[in-house]
Amino acid sequence: MNIFPYFSDCRCIAPRSHSTKNLATIMKFQQLKTFLDAKAAHYNTPEFIAGDPICIPHRFTKLQDIEISGLFAAILAWGNRTTIINKCTELMKMMDDAPYDFVLNHKPKERMKLLRFCHRTFNGVDLMYFVEFLQGYYTDVTSLEFAFSGHITPEDETVENALRGFHHMFFLPEHPERTRKHISTPARNSACKRLNMYLRWMVRNDENGVDFGLWQHIQPSQLVCPMDVHVGRVATRLGLIPAAKSDWKTALALTRQLRQLDPLDPAKYDFALFGLGVIEKYV
After folding, report:
1. For a Cys staple, 283 with which of 27, 32, 91, 233, CB 3.0–4.6 Å?
2. b/e map of 239-248 (b: 16 or more CB within 10 Å)?
3. Other C-beta atoms within 10 Å of 238: how many?
4. How far is CA 206 from CA 5, 48, 144, 157, 191, in A?
5. What are φ and ψ of residue 42, in 5° steps?
6. Interval 220-236: pLDDT, tens
7. pTM for the full model?
């Protein structure tokens, strides 16, 4: 049973009509905001880093090292978090714990050692293409930010066009067909959970020490909340969305609700929903 009603028509500002029903809705809205703000603050701390895949990019200080290691940590974020961290650590060692230098300067024959890497359905063939793409990209551009921000304007409500544009750019070169499943796109109604998580890492900057806030051309208000089964179930129980579907339409619907709680930083509630679902087993 939902604790709070689905409040798609609710607004942060009280309606002119002060009926008992409207006042009850406002009160429950404020209860939900207070609850989720507290949960977000509880998990959005440096202590969260060690047990989360975001610990991988936190091992680096150079912008490009953070971008590359963060991209792989997000793309490989399937299943048990300890396993994800271990596999990302293995991958970084294969890159001599210097991902930018490896990507930029390795020779094609050095790429062959990557073929032995495997995590779930992501294998060495996929990895070789990722590295080949990144080498070509970083040869001409200083930051991976522009692969996303180059497709978005300040007037865009969300990062949808950034995700669509990145997907198109990533697969412009000749590529293995099997690799397409590892970069999602809203064009196929994918929730784009991993890429939205990556964008959260790179864009949000609240000085709490978890997210990096390195990218300046995408606004935190444009971020879409990463949507997986745990977040979906918690959001459904709280009445934020009517059903826990892992697709783009539902991710947008959830984000619209979270934007009512904080118009400038809706993705901060990813900490709350993820913590409630994965750590506290709230569902």
Report:
1. 233
2. bbbeebbebb
3. 22
4. 29, 15, 21, 20, 25
5. -65, -40
6. 999 999 999 999 999 99
7. 0.91
What's the chain look like in SS3? CCCCCCCCCCCCCCCCCCCHHHHHHHHHHHHHHHHHHHHHHHHCCHHHCCCCHHHCHHHCCCHHHHHHHHHHHHHCCCCCHHHHHHHHHHHHHHCCCCHHHHHHHCCHHHHHHHHHCEECCEEHHHHHHHHHHHHHHHHHCCCCHHHHHCCCCCCCCCCHHHHHHHHHHHCCCCCCHHHHHHCCCHHHCECCHHHHHHHHHHHCCCCCCCCCCCCCCCCHHHCCCCCCHHHHHHHHHCCCCCCCCCEHHHHHHHHHHHHHHCCCCHHHHHHHHHHHHHHCCCC
Tens of pLDDT, residues 153-210:
999 999 999 999 999 999 999 999 999 999 999 999 999 999 999 999 999 999 899 9
pLDDT digits (tens, 9 = 90+) for 92-139: 999 999 999 999 999 888 889 999 999 999 999 999 999 999 999 999
Question: How far apart, in Å, are the Cα atoms of 7 and each of 225, 249, 261?
Answer: 17, 17, 11
Q: Each residue of 187-221: b (16+ CB within 10 Å) or e?
A: eeebbbbbbbbbbbbbbbeeebebbbebbeebebb
CA distances from 141 to 64, 133, 147 (A): 11, 12, 9
Tokens 């059903």 found at = 243
Residue 176 burial class via C-beta count within 10 angstroms: exposed 0-12, middle 13-18, buried 19 and up: exposed
Closest CA to 56 of 90, 16, 14: 90
Question: Tell me, what amino acid is at 162?
Answer: A
